[in-house]
Design a protein that fits this description.
Blueprint lengths: L2 H11 L14 H8 L4 H8 L11 H23 L4 H19 L13 H19 L1 H6 L6 H21 L2 H16 L14 H9 L8 H22 L2 H13 L5 H14 L5 H18 L4 H14 L9 H10 L3 H30 L12 H4 L7 H11 L4 H18 L7 H14 L1 H20 L1 H13 L3 H4 L4 E6 L6 E7 L4 E7 L5 E6 L10 E5 L13
Antiparallel strand pairs: 1-2, 3-4, 4-5
Length: 560
């Protein structure tokens, strides 16, 4: 069956809601033409809760845009100047997140997408108030180490409830219920028998710890979102405005389109490329799938298989360096590893993931006897290579991170380069309106991650307050039967730092839950000795020694 005959079959049988015309050349311009026949935003909103936000006209639209731009501007300013202490920065970050969520997302999925409910206005104002309270009373909160006042307790309860409801709206009910269960566990742990029980905490103490400290709501997860994640999301938003997405599609077509089962291989490569700049697997699927799915069907792939290839490829894009979402930044912060180490270690798993899908579609195409696309239909390399400069922002960002620059500095410089590249690109030039849209999209795209980090802080502080983490580790050690290789994942990490600069040099994991102290000795002071304390069940209480790469000099920092 010829390509034209296959296209007739597609027209007769349908293409799963998508339409692909017979064209002389397949490139990003064709993608835009195909996407013009599909309401992409409607599809994304249907399957991605984060994209199911309200759209307004008139002054409300202008107001939302101003808030989003102010949100992005605040983080660019603080990243460049470091003007505010962590607690204030996190409070302002969460305030913007709460205001935008209640203004943009209705209480029910079936709620109006074009009208703003009066109670959402009140909830948005309350979100600004509970975070503004921290900013306004920062000096008093920092200096006063006593129990929370009645006003502190009131605003703290309101903040927790607002975060829970905002999480339900944009992330979903399951994670909200998990957070509620942890809160109940912290309050009523005295009712639980056995090792998993604890004395329980008063409601006032729980709220005070959640709201007035740099743990809980304003803990490390939210700090990661406010300091790093937002900047990388903003970087991705500006990359979309440079025309890099179109270049990725053309590059994938030119690289794999003419080979056996070419359209499926194009889908794999394009989704992987998009994964470097996209924060949403659904948006990734829609951006490339509106073109690649009907293209795959046109050469003989079944619709179900074509959809599966696109979905799997787009999902894998979330583990594609350098932008891998909040999880990568939290891993770097909690484990003591530099983000550059996380990126380097993510390269091989990401490569193997896409290689597996690539080989799968290759063997499927061989089995079905499917051919690739005609060479004359595909983009020409001589036209693509002059546009290779569009990759410069990604290259600059990756190089700076690996070179040891801070993540904030790397993201800012990468964003600046992206803007410059967008101005240079005459085919898809960065205009003032695109610049403003980049700031607006950066603010909107961060909402789900920001509120998820807030709810993660609630869960985290409940675990630390109740000692649940140590109890679970003890169970793991018991179940391992003393096998260190089995129990290793539950251990604490010792991070060795330069006493003068504070720069992290090396880090080591230990299987015991309670690292107590460390010291350097041996020849040239290169042997790190670490002691661990025993718990009430007799687990731990050992001495470990590790040969290090650097000469030790006390005191060294320990992070657990």
């Amino acid at each position: 069956m010829s390509h034209k005959e296959r296209m007739k079959v597609i027209e007769q049988e349908g293409s799963g809601g998508f339409a692909l015309e017979e064209v002389e050349k397949l490139d990003s311009a064709t993608v835009e033409k195909v996407q013009g026949t599909v309401d992409v935003s409607e599809i994304v909103a249907k399957y991605d809760k984060e994209s199911a936000y309200r759209t307004f006209k008139g002054w409300l639209e202008v107001f939302i845009r101003v808030v989003c731009i102010a949100f992005s501007g605040f983080h660019l300013f603080t990243a460049a100047t470091g003007a505010y202490p962590p607690q204030i920065q996190r409070a302002v970050h969460l305030g913007f997140v709460l205001v935008l969520i209640y203004l943009l997302y209705p209480a029910r999925a079936t709620g109006s997408k074009h009208k703003l409910a009066w109670y959402d206005v009140l909830l948005a104002a309350a979100g600004a108030a509970v975070c503004g309270y921290i900013v306004w009373n920062y000096d008093v909160i920092v200096l006063d180490a006593g129990p929370p006042t009645e006003m502190d307790f009131f605003f703290g309860c309101a903040a927790i409830l607002l975060v829970l409801e905002a999480t339900r709206r944009i992330v979903g009910l399951p994670i909200t219920l998990v957070a509620i269960c942890f809160l109940l566990y912290a309050k009523f742990g005295n009712l639980i028998p056995g090792m998993m029980g604890h004395p329980g905490f008063s409601l006032k103490r729980i709220v005070g710890h959640m709201y007035l400290t740099t743990e809980g709501l304003f803990g490390m997860p939210l700090g990661v979102s406010a300091s790093f994640v937002f900047l990388f999301i903003l970087f991705g938003a500006f990359l979309h405005s440079t025309g890099l997405g179109k270049f990725f599609i053309d590059l994938a077509l030119a690289a794999a389109g003419r080979f056996v089962g070419g359209p499926a291989k194009v889908a794999v490569l394009a989704s992987g490329f998009f994964g470097t700049i996209s924060g949403s697997s659904v948006a990734n699927t829609v951006s490339t799938g509106t073109f690649t799915i009907p293209l795959m069907k046109s050469v003989g792939y079944r619709g179900a298989f074509a959809g599966a290839v696109e979905a799997a490829s787009s999902t894998g894009g979330q583990i594609m360096p350098p932008i891998m979402g909040a999880a990568a930044f939290i891993m770097a912060e909690m484990t003591g590893y530099e983000y550059s180490d996380i990126i380097v270690r993510a390269i091989l798993p990401a490569f193997l993931y896409f290689l597996g899908i690539f080989l799968g579609v290759h063997f499927k195409a061989k089995k079905l006897g499917l051919v690739g696309l005609k060479r004359e239909e595909l983009p020409k390399w001589k036209l693509l290579l002059p546009k290779i400069y569009l990759l410069l922002p990604l290259i600059i960002l990756t190089w700076m991170v690996i070179a040891g620059q801070t993540m904030a500095k790397s993201a800012i410089y990468g964003t600046i380069v992206a803007i410059v590249v967008g101005i240079i690109n005459k085919d898809d030039r960065m205009t003032p309106s695109k610049f403003v849209n980049g700031l607006e999209n950066g603010g909107k795209n961060c909402l789900s991650i920001g509120i998820a980090c807030g709810i993660a802080g609630i869960i985290s502080v409940c675990i630390t307050m109740t000692g649940l983490g140590g109890k679970l580790i003890t169970y793991v050690v018991k179940l391992s039967g003393g096998n260190l290789f089995i129990a290793l994942w539950g251990g604490h990490r010792v991070v060795c730092c330069d006493p003068a600069s504070g720069e992290r040099r090396e880090s080591y994991s230990f299987p015991d839950a309670r690292v107590s102290c460390c010291a350097f000795g041996g020849e040239d002071h290169r042997t790190l000795a670490v002691t661990t304390a025993a718990d009430e069940n007799g687990a731990g209480g050992y001495i470990y020694s590790v040969l290090t790469e650097h000469t030790g000099a006390a005191p060294y920092t320990i992070q657990t």
